[in-house]
Design goal:
The complex is a heterodimer.
Chain A: E1 4-13, E2 16-26, E3 31-35, H1 42-50, E4 57-62, E5 65-66, E6 77-80, H2 92-102, H3 107-120, H4 136-148, E7 154-158, H5 166-183, E8 186-191, H6 194-200, E9 203-208, E10 211-216, H7 218-223, H8 228-234, E11 238-241, H9 242-249, E12 257-261, E13 267-269, E14 279-292, E15 295-302, E16 305-312, E17 324-330, E18 335-338
Parallel strand pairs in A: 3-8, 3-9, 6-7, 7-8
Antiparallel strand pairs in A: 1-2, 1-4, 4-5, 9-10, 11-12, 12-18, 13-17, 14-15, 14-17, 15-16
Helix pairs in contact in A: 2-3, 2-4, 3-4
Chain B: H1 2-8, H2 19-44, E1 45-47, E2 54-56, H3 59-65, H4 68-102, H5 106-119, H6 122-133, H7 143-170, H8 172-180, H9 186-197, H10 199-215, H11 218-223, H12 231-239, H13 243-273
Antiparallel strand pairs in B: 1-2
Classes of the chains: A alpha+beta, B mainly alpha.
């Protein structure tokens, strides 16, 4: 039995169904990411779990207790919001202590726990500062301290890093992951950023149009997307129609399916490699190259099809636009997936 | 991450007001002070028939300050201001709690209701109140309570706008939700978290409302007249007697309003500093 269970959860706003029969469980201590594009229902599900939003149908069970109709203030769930939502009239210390005061914890314990929580998010020295005097990153860390100090049953993070610049975001991703490991707190993280989901999660629940498209570990979801949507959202998969793939490989593809190939699994050479039973080689022309950090992405025109190829950015191994190259695609890297599949979570 | 994190988290630099802006504000301020200064000069001299006034005197002020009716009218006006504004603030804060924390859809209805007094002429409002409550034998048929009610309606739109803007500025609903997640009930969150953050907005709008009540003549004259004389009715009653005395009354009204304003602004500043 899972620690958190969503049983057939439906949420409608008027005629608009935002959550469409959601069924899945979360194990205690896991860091689960709800990933998906804007408007897919991931934040709504988080708010339903928090109690800030009611469900239209279905049931939410937390640690064996049906909390579907329990008020937010009674669920013992911590939440960090995208907009920080620190109380402007209170100092960092007072903000962090607020939840403990609500629980009527004795003052000595409050002081001890607040000091520990502030140290955990590395805000020591900022105890007396008001939110207006903190940067975005500091505010978000204060909000995190405020949420974990009450030792909630679950910690919810609703796109907490989306308003923070890229460099600081990476640092905070690591810190959140570290805190999760230190405290062993069941954590649900909502994001639309697939890279963030990869870095943070034990399990990814990929959302699409109010339903779960795919669930699994980051490696599973990345390497074995179950649908066209999953392949396009999780990675920069090359998605070839049956006709395109047949033209390249000479292999037929079942109707209603596409072939997805990750750019980094494709070999690229100036000299045609020896033929192999494991894969096939096609010739093409480089039309573009784009540096993407430590990876160089080539666009190679093969017949009427553009294929993306990622290689490590090494200056001695570069191809120029217009150059003829040979691409090696291994059969086990060519995933045949349904056009509109949905997995049972 | 600490050193890296701290390195990227820089505070925003402060801004200075440009000199041109200060000069422009100074000129506008002086221009706005002209009516007050001329009234003040007029009240301090016996005659002003030439370029410069002549015959400096404090007689008008001596006469005014020794008149008990004047002090009573000032006191009544202050009571009217405080009671009416306080009633409006309490009613609106309760109503806005419902809008912010219970049903946000009621916001439009609240806005419509609170805007109605803008369209009401003082004469219509006062006649309506008199015809509705006079002779009913209830506490509301008392002229003073009628005035409290009338001013509560009069200042409703101004205080509503101030409170609504203050609530929007802090995203009150989000703060209540954040407090709820920490185990706090909604109403307690509204009182403990939201209200302290909108004190400035409430003070500013109550300041505006106070000056409106202080400057009202129509409602006070129509509803209470000399039964419950406020400062504007007192001024009107003395205008025919002496223009110098009238000017002195206007100056005192201005100074009282300025003093109340200064106190409110000081309170606002101290709450912001906290």
């Amino acid at each position: 039995m899972a620690y958190i269970e969503f049983n057939d959860v439906v949420k409608r706003f008027g005629d608009n169904t935002v959550l469409d029969h959601i069924n899945f469980g979360i194990q205690q201590g896991d860091l689960v990411t709800l990933l998906g594009p804007s408007g897919c229902g991931k934040s709504t599900l988080l708010r339903c779990l928090s109690g800030l939003e009611s469900v239209t149908e279905g049931q939410i069970v937390l640690d064996g207790r049906d909390v579907t109709n329990v008020p937010a203030s009674k669920r013992n769930i911590g939440m960090v919001f995208q907009q920080y939502s620190l109380f402007p009239n209170m100092t960092v210390e007072q903000n962090v202590a607020f939840g403990l005061k609500m629980k009527k914890v004795d003052p000595a314990t409050i002081e001890k726990k607040v000091t520990e929580a502030i140290a955990m998010v590395e805000l020591t020295g900022k105890e007396k500062a008001y939110p207006a005097n903190l940067s975005g990153g500091q505010q978000q860390r204060a909000a995190l301290a405020r949420s974990i100090v009450t030792e909630p049953a679950v910690l919810l993070l609703d796109e907490p890093l989306s308003a923070i610049d890229a460099k600081l975001r990476k640092a905070l991703q690591s810190r959140i992951r570290e805190i999760h490991q230190e405290l062993g707190l069941t954590t649900i993280f909502v994001t639309h950023d697939q890279d963030e989901a990869m870095v943070m999660s034990d399990v990814i629940q990929l959302f699409h149009s109010g339903r779960i498209e795919q669930a699994g570990s980051p490696v599973e979801v990345y390497t074995h997307p179950v649908s066209e949507f999953a392949a396009s959202f999780i990675g920069s998969y090359n998605q070839l129609t049956g006709a395109q793939f047949s033209a390249l490989s000479g292999t037929a593809v079942p109707a209603g399916h596409v072939v997805a190939v990750r750019p980094e699994t494709i070999g690229i050479d100036r000299v045609r490699p020896a033929a192999s039973d494991d894969g096939f080689v096609v010739a093409g022309t480089v039309t573009d190259s784009t540096p993407r950090g430590n990876v160089l992405r080539y666009t190679v025109r093969v017949g009427q099809t553009n294929i993306l190829v990622d290689v490590l950015f090494r200056s001695f191994h570069m191809f120029d636009p217009g150059e003829t190259v040979y691409l090696t695609l291994l059969k086990h890297d060519c995933l045949v997936i349904p056009e509109n599949a949905r997995s049972a979570a | 991450m600490s050193s890296k994190t701290k390195a990227v988290e820089a505070a925003a630099p402060g801004k200075k007001t440009p000199l041109a802006a200060k000069i422009f504000l100074g000129i506008v301020g002086l221009y706005l002070l002209v009516p007050f200064l001329t009234t003040l000069v007029y009240s301090l001299f016996v005659e002003w028939t030439d370029v410069l006034p002549s015959g400096f005197t404090l007689r008008n002020y001596a006469e005014l300050f020794t008149n008990s009716t004047f002090w009573l009218s000032i006191g009544r006006t202050l009571i009217l201001c405080l009671v009416s504004v306080a009633i409006t603030i309490v009613l609106l804060l309760l109503a806005m709690y419902v809008v912010v924390a219970v049903n946000r859809k009621l916001g439009r209805f609240m806005q419509f209701v609170c805007m109605i007094p803008y369209a009401l002429q003082g004469v219509i409002l006062s006649i309506g109140i008199i015809s509705l409550y006079t002779g009913t034998g209830t506490i509301l048929s008392n002229r003073m309570f009628m005035l409290f009610g009338a001013y509560t309606i009069l200042v409703l739109p101004y205080i509503y706008q101030g409170i609504r803007n203050a609530l929007n500025a802090i995203d009150a609903n989000m703060l209540i939700q954040a407090a709820e997640m920490l185990g706090c009930g909604r109403f307690r969150a509204y009182v403990q978290v939201v209200l302290p953050n909108i004190v400035s907005g409430i003070l500013v709008s109550s300041l505006l409302a106070e000056s409106i009540v202080f400057g009202d003549f129509v409602l006070a004259n129509n509803i209470a007249g000399t039964n419950y004389q406020n400062i504007q009715v007192f001024l009107q009653a003395n205008m025919a007697r002496s223009s110098g005395l009238s000017s002195a009354i206007v100056v005192v009204i201005f100074l009282v309003v300025a003093a109340v304003t200064a106190i409110v602004l000081k309170l606002q500043r101290s709450s912001q500093n906290r």
